[in-house]
Amino acid sequence: MSNITFDRKTAIKYLEKYLAPNKARGMAGQAALFSWLREERQKRHAQKCFTGCWLLSPKDDSERKKRVCFFVNSRCVESADDVKMECEGLLEDRLFHAVCGKLAQCGLGVVFTVPVANPAQRENMDEIDWHFFRYLNEKLVPFDGRTFFEGWAGGKGRAVINKTGWDNDVNTRFENLDDTDLTAMVTAQAFYYGFLKVRLRKSFTDAYDVDCFIASHQGTVLPVEIKEKSPGGDKGSGFFGIDAGRILMLLRLCLPVDANAAYVVREIKEGGGREFVGWKVLTLDRLVMSASWNLQAGGKGMGGGNTQTVLMPYSLFEDLDDKWFEDSHLNAIGQISINVKKKATEFQTEIESLFSPK
User: Fold this and answer.
1) Residue 211 falls within a domain, yes or no?
2) Average pLDDT, whole number, for the chain?
3) How do residues 33-66 score in pLDDT, each as one tens digit?
4) Is residue 173, in this structure, part of any structural domain at all?
5) How far apart are CA 279 and CA 267, in angstroms?
6) Residue 312 and residue 263: Cα distance in Å, rounded?
7) How far apart are CA 73 and CA 69, in angstroms?
8) Quick one: CA torsion of 107, 108, 109, 110, rounded to 10 degrees?
9) 210, β-bridge pairs
10) How many domains in the chain?
11) 244-270 residues labelled b (16+ CB within 10 A) or e (exposed)
């Protein structure tokens, strides 16, 4: 199989063109999690981590929201034969079927796309070709992606260019990325920005991306949101801010199949050094049951508009370690309804203390 290797400086410049510094830091945080999972102590769990996807719907579909998940192959190949080999490999991957099957049960379309380029195109990622396949009945069925998107309303879109540039800390982290992780970032962003925005000029009202999926060998599937941040607030009453739209997105994926989800934070120290502190995790059931209902103003979202943020107490987050990825643990937290009911039962006991104060 012939894979296209992008020049590192060219790849970083491409990502810098479209990604604001904070978005880039978040993606570096994702790569850090994947790298951590490949380390000796927990590398047996790395195979449980599957790439994320774009979640898109036609712009005029405001009522029904017929959403489609677009998975982008992490490698860019050179020929149709290479595309065939990539698809054959996926169809032998039990994790791939578990993730795609769950999403299909959610009433979502599931598409897998493979980037194809000749060596001359490695300098212009916006010119990559794309081969599209629909996941249907445990098969990958080819279709014409350009024709498919021409039927979607929402023309005259454009890629928002990052005009601020990256700080030195961001550039350094991307320069030190593993080649595999850097290529996966380029292909994912080239699909959304280069193909959909630059070439097709499509616009989307609420485009979102899922960072990755974690699955057990028994078929438990959890969508995962990964962020890099330091806690706000005073010591002892710290919090992490979570985009309210992300919570709704995770609920949309989880509720139809009674699945849970995880919000993972690569915690860093406040200040310019951005020193790594540790990994933290909060499951969706705990988030929903303990979240404040008063939203705070957040930063810019993918569409350029302001977001709303839910402040979650730092104390609710657990340490993320290799034991968290054990099948027994993933299966125990896998169903959101069971875990919400458990939490409600705990709350019932705690409520009694309000009526019977000591």
Assistant:
1) yes
2) 91
3) 999 999 878 888 999 999 999 999 988 766 678 8
4) yes
5) 6
6) 11
7) 13
8) -120
9) 53
10) 1
11) bbbbebbebbbeebebbbbbbbbbbee
Strand partners, 312: 240
Domain boundaries, position 183: 8-355
Model confidence band, residue 305 (pLDDT cutoffs 50, 70, 90): low
Q: Specify whether the CB–CB gap between 265 and 243 falls below 8 A.
A: no
Could you give the CA distance from residue 336 to residue 283 in angstroms, rounded to a whole number?
A: 9
- Give the model confidence (pLDDT) of 288-298 as tens digits: 999 988 888 76
Asked whether residue 2 is domain-assigned, the answer is no
- The full 3-state SS of the chain, as one line of letters, equals CCECCCCHHHHHHHHHHHCCHHHHHHHHHHHHHHHHHCCCCCHHHHHHEEEEEEEECCCCCCCCCCCEEEEECCCCECCHHHHHHHHHHHHCCHHHHHHHHHHHHCCCEEEEEEEECCHHHHHCHHHCEEEEEEEECCEEEEECHHHHHHCCCCCCCCCCCCCCCCCHHHHHHHHCCCHHHHHHHHHHHHHHHHHHHHHCCCCCCCCEEEEEEEECCCCCEEEEEEEEECCECCCCCCEEEEEHHHHHHHHHHHHHHCCCCEEEEEEECCCCCCCEEEEEEEEHHHHHHHCCCCCEEEEECCCCCEEEEEEEEHHHCEECCHHHHCHHHHHHHCCHHHHHHHHHHHHHHHHHHHHCCC
Angle at 132 between CA 51 and CA 110, to 5 degrees: 55
Residue 266 has phi, psi (to 5 degrees) of: -90, 100
* 1 assigned to some structural domain: no
pTM of the model: 0.92
User: Which tokens belong to 102?
Assistant: 């769950």
